[in-house]
Design goal:
alpha/beta, Rossmann fold, SDR_fam, SDR, Beta-ketoacyl-ACP reductase
């Protein structure tokens, strides 16, 4: 494995935190962004809001100074504002798209400057099984997550000849505080849809990201990799 400088957005909790810790444990130089500037031990935490290009630029400057040019970017930061379509406000829709899709655009655009200069880069976009399967009450979220596929494939065609790959990881039901609080009957219903018979973990997603960031995945680009226990059957 070649140690790389990695930036994970939204790396202070959940899947992003698991990704950051896995990459750091493998020997990469890892930085994370969070809105409050906090993060797990062993990584560089910088404050940034992915809806604000200026704050991202400032965060990149800190990371580049401390760890070197960003070679791997993991666009993970995201939000939900779930409600049925007829109850969904324009702000509900726009805010989710601005964070999940717009945030990915801003961070990848900033990262690509250094990647083009180095003629090397790994772009990894964290989507969701919902982006392909759909989900009632998540028109905004599903739209933002499915759009990442077109983003990665367009980026592959645009920058693939410069040593830069772009791939999408689509997690399914992942163990979290939220899933733990679901009623037992609802948990059983969700589990019944998953062929492997369990929820995924943040580590399941993190190990997939680790592989995509590695030298072994150099010929993989424009791919959508489901980490969902067979729920979407590859979509």
């Amino acid at each position: 494995m070649t140690p790389r400088t990695v930036l994970v957005t939204g790396g202070n909790r959940g899947i992003g935190r698991a990704i950051a810790l896995e990459l750091a444990a493998a020997g990469h130089r890892v930085a994370i962004t969070s809105r409050n500037g906090s993060g797990p031990e062993g990584v560089l935490a910088v404050q940034a809001d992915v809806t604000d290009a200026a704050s991202l630029d400032a965060a990149f400057t800190v990371v580049e100074t401390e760890l070197g040019p960003v070679e791997v970017v993991v666009a993970n930061a995201g939000i939900t504002k779930d409600t049925l379509l007829l109850r969904m406000t324009e702000a509900d829709f726009d805010d989710v798209v601005a964070t999940n899709l717009g945030g990915s655009f801003r961070v990848v655009k900033r990262a690509s400057k250094g990647m083009l200069k180095a003629r090397f880069g790994r772009v990894i976009l964290i989507s969701s099984v919902v982006g392909m399967l759909g989900s009632a009450g998540q028109v905004n979220y599903a739209s933002s997550k499915s759009a990442l596929i077109g983003f990665a494939r367009s980026l592959t065609r645009e920058l693939g000849g410069r040593g830069i790959t772009a791939n999408v990881v689509a997690p399914g039901f992942i163990e979290s505080d939220m899933t733990a609080e679901l009623p037992e009957a609802q948990q059983k219903d969700y589990l019944g849809r998953i062929p492997v018979g369990r929820f995924g973990s943040g580590d399941d997603v993190a190990k997939t990201v680790l592989w995509l960031a590695s030298d072994d995945a150099a010929y993989i680009s424009g791919a959508v990799i489901p980490v969902d226990g067979g729920l979407g059957m590859g979509h």
